[in-house]
Every structure is written in C-alpha cells, then in structure tokens.
C-alpha cells in the first residue's frame, strides 16, 4: 500500500517522496514475481523446456496482476480521489490551506481499504478475460493472487 499512502500524502510532501513510494511498491511487485517463479520452478514438469515456459508464465502473470492491482490502478484511484477532494473542498473559502491539505490526506487514507477488493476483482476479471486465456489452467494452479498470501 506504499504508493496509495504516498498519493494520499501528495499534498503534504515533496513529489520525490511520492515517487519513492512507487519505487517501494514496484520492489514488492518484482519480489512477488520472483517468489511465484520460484514456486513454479519447484513443481515437477515433464521437461526443462516446459518448466521454463511455465515459470515464465507465472512470473509474467504475477508482474501484470500485481502491477495493475497493487501499483497502477490503486495509485491512480487515490490520486484522483484526492484531486477531486481538493477541488471540491477548495471551493469553500472557509477552509484554511493547511486544514484542506490534511483533510484531503485523511480522505485519501480512509479510501484505501474500500478500493482494494473492487480493484482486485476487476483485475482478476481482466486477467481471466485476456492474459490467462492463453495459459490459464496451469497458471491458476501455480499463481494465486490474494492479499493475504
């Protein structure tokens, strides 16, 4: 959730801190892809060629799923929620700039738990409808993307 928190604090901190939150999230995505690739590599395959292909699919699936579900879509969503909140609350002349920034940060942080499940389900649907049509049955046995795994 590093980049979502970074986006929520965008109005409070230097943009490089927000960018670094995306770096942290991206490291997690790559680490998970490596982990899923190792899990796939530990399974028994009929040949080394098939093993290499299945490991590649597992890594690619994880990079794509995590990239969308953990970095791109949530970051964009919190960014837009905060931008809309800033616009709407900024129209009120009674709110001090400091209070406005903290209110927007609070709104962004409060939205994080509510966006996770719909985003995960949407990414699952997109992946099942596109990428996983090619190697789906095998990938489902190897790669399981859940927030609690």
Shape: elongated
Mean pLDDT: 90
Give unreliable regions as ranges. none
Profile the largest sheet.
none
Helix content: over 70%
- Based on secondary structure, the structural category is mainly alpha
Task: Please give the radius of gyration in angstroms.
Answer: 19 Å
H/E series, N to C?
Answer: HHHHH
Give the percentage of residues in beta strands.
Answer: under 5%
- Total beta strand runs: 0
Could you give the distance between the termini?
15 Å
Number of helices in the DSSP assignment: 5
What features would you describe in this structure?
The protein has helices at 2-8, 15-42, 48-90, 97-129, 132-142. It has 149 residues and is mainly α. The longest helix is centred in the middle third of the chain and has 43 residues, at 48-90. The radius of gyration is 19 Å and the shape is elongated. The two termini are 15 Å apart. The model has no long low-confidence stretch (mean pLDDT 90).
Secondary-structure topology with pairs:
Layout: H1 2-8, H2 15-42, H3 48-90, H4 97-129, H5 132-142
Which descriptors would you attach to this protein?
single chain; 149 residues; mainly alpha; 5 helices; Mitochondrial_18_kDa_protein; Mitochondrial fission process protein 1
Would you summarize the structure shown here?
With 149 residues, the chain is mainly alpha-helical.
């Amino acid at each position: 959730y590093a980049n979502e928190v970074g986006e929520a604090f965008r109005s409070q901190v230097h943009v490089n801190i927000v960018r670094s939150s995306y770096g942290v999230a991206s490291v997690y995505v790559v680490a998970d892809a490596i982990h899923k690739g190792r899990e796939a590599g530990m399974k028994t395959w009929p040949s080394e060629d098939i093993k290499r292909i299945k490991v590649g699919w597992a890594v690619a699936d994880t990079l794509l799923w995590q990239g969308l579900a953990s970095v791109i879509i949530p970051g964009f969503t919190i960014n837009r929620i905060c931008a809309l909140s800033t616009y709407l609350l900024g129209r009120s002349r009674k709110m001090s700039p400091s209070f406005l920034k903290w209110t927007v940060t609070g709104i962004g942080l409060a939205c994080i738990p509510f966006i996770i499940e719909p985003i995960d389900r949407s990414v699952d649907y997109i992946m099942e409808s596109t990428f996983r049509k090619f190697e789906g049955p095998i990938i489902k046995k190897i790669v399981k993307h859940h927030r609690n795994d």
